[in-house]
Amino acid sequence: MAGLVIEVLYVEHCPCVPAALSLVHRVCAELDVDAEVRTTLIPDQATAERARFLGSPTVRVAGRDVEPGVELAGEYSLECRLYRHEHRLAGYPQERWVRNALVAAAADRT
Questions:
Q1: Angle at CA 92, nearest 5°, toward 43 and 34?
Q2: In the structure, what pLDDT confidence band is assigned to residue 47 with cuts at 50, 70 and 90?
Q3: What is the CATH number of the domain that holds 40?
Q4: Which of 5, 42, 83, 97 is deepest in the core (most CB within 10 A)?
């Protein structure tokens, strides 16, 4: 999947960025996806609004947020982002969301 871009947008000192990046790299390796992983620091509210930033970290595959249904959200914030997992909240997306986003991006490219 050459040319596929995965973005990890974050605020400075976000403790969940390493976990999100590790998840992205691991799922890419498992699916044998050769994607460019870009990290983008969101320094202020104006940048957050321009980037449609929903909190730190935000993971997007091919420009789309990996969390299902959040495209409708309109509150852009410099806060930490919490993701709903099956039995808890976490500071990084569910693995299946990242996997599904990569598979969908691959299907869109064929």
A1: 90
A2: very high
A3: 3.40.30
A4: 42
